Amino acid sequence: MGSPLSRSGVLHLDLEGGSVFPGLISYGTALGLTHIFHEASTNDGLVLDPLSTEMPRIVDTTVVKAVDGLLFTTRDAQLAYRNGITSAVTAPSSSGFLAGLSTVFSTSAPHKLAEGAVTQEVAALHVALSLSFRVSVGTQIATLRSLLLGEGKGDLGKRFSDVVSVCIVHAICA
């Protein structure tokens, strides 16, 4: 059998009836933040909710990054990879208003320092509004409005400022 490279430099492969397709992307799961779903000692844990919990001073204006809690070579990540999911977008686990910053990572990476393990350190800022939170929807919307209008401090203020600048650019371009 000859070389898979033709004279034109194009790679030709005989897949023997198989097929090639781009890798799938997982979004909306705790993939990469948990080893055993209902076992708290194997999970990254929940983000503190700034609207219903008194925040410790040391993290008062900090936004949690999912990339800091990533767990590699979990059973679920390996199963996802074997089934065609090559990347995952995962946000910090939260049951409150401000979840934090999601990340994109490779489900095949053996550890965080491997080349290509983290493909995008920050993907999006995640905020949730809900009737089931301990504070009113009005309070949640007022807080979101305040943050979007630049009244946040520290890392929190910067992250919301970034959201506003991106949204304005997209709105102008649209």
From TrEMBL:
Species of origin: Mycena venus
Domain of life: Eukaryota
Name assigned to this protein: Carbohydrate esterase family 9 protein
